[in-house]
Input
Amino acid sequence: MFKSISIGSASGAIRVLPVFKDLVLPSAWRSISGVAEAIKAPGFKGDLGEVSPAGSKAILLGLGDAAKSKPSVLRRFGSRLAAVLERMGAGAASLEIPTTGLASRDPKEFGRAVAEGMLLGPWRIEGYDGKATERTAPSGSLRITSPDRLVLEGLADGLLVAESVNYARFLQSTPPNVAHPQWMASQARALARRLRLKARVIDFAEARRLGMGGLVNVGMGSTQKPCLIILEHVPRGAAKAPHLAFVGKTLTYDTGGYSLKVNNGMKGMKFDKSGGCAVLGAIRAIAESRLPVRVTAVLPAAENMVAGDSFRPDDVISFMNGVTCEVTNTDAEGRLVLADALCFTCERIKPDAIVDLATLTGGVVVALGSHCAGYFCEDAELTRRIEGAADRSGEKVWRLPLWEEHRGLMRSRIADIVNSGAKRGAHPIQGAAFLSFFVKPGMPWAHVDIAGVSDDEGHELFGSGATGYGVRLLLELARSYADRAVTSRARGRSPQRPRRG
Output
């Protein structure tokens, strides 16, 4: 794995010539020394990732079936390209683009997807190998360029995005004896300093004064007390820019509390902070892209542990907006911390739209597997934008219903609501229904349950572990609002608030 990949030409760059399975070469490539022999090499069929050297200065690299050359395939191509160049000991490469047969929409998209794959595929967390490791540490650097200006622009954008996704994966993968709520706050502050974001951290004492009973009770049993982390990207002209709020569940570890997880159920619970990690990765990409849209990241960070002062089933707690909740299951804790974060976002931040990301329910995994996230949204414009962002990013979503009948499932006999219904039916919808009690009427809001996509055991690009799901989705969503802001300025009028569907 390369220690770094950056944009820029260098002497002796390897020419990378992508070819489809039909093995039809652009005429300009036929005169390149060694290409004629490489295309006829025994066994070379142009399958995805298949390589054939063309002398010492070029390689043919298979793109597979031209009809299937969508961005997800191009990312896998990029991952394979990085591995091939590392094995060759290359320090620089020039990526060319096939002139025919590319199903991708444009050369910029081609470059973007390939660059994303080059960084995402080989990545793994560093810093935890000891003296007995058999792995080699990342080393060397690679400079990549292209003779095509649009491909080069795409490569630069793809590297920027992938670096932010890998940043989220680093946060996700950091073990819980390191990554506690205060560590997450320190990471957010460091990010804010580097990117000139506004930062604020509401500590345990202040959260209690503000009436954040969900955040306080979930994190009370840990020696590492909970906090609410807030970062703001405020571009120039922010007064007229659309304002989005991204709220990310940040449970740095979840034992289940007194409703203790059994058997091997705790393994992998370091990934219960994935929503917050994705939100930090997204605001990093948004700030580095200098998007003309205002974005506030809100991360309720807590560790759900068992102690003498931990909250219990049968407790009744109250939230920042005065809603009371009967605790029926301390392992349904994510919605409790999100409740206060949503209250704070609606009452203090007052954005134009809110999207929350959370590893909230096992039920969404049962329903949709690991191929897409389930999401809930009753606002027509926000729904359209989220689905468009999913199409462009490749991070798939599937909309599930949220009706008044579902809200009725959450009613309590002794408090306003329960945090988990007695029946398992509509379990992921129960989570969304619960959260709806903490979003002000008329506020465009979407809840995205990423429990099935935040980490994987055998992903075709990411392998096993953290995926950083949500970074690209939220970035593309912000870009859609930024495009609207630019268009509105060009027309001489201010962007309007999203309409209620």
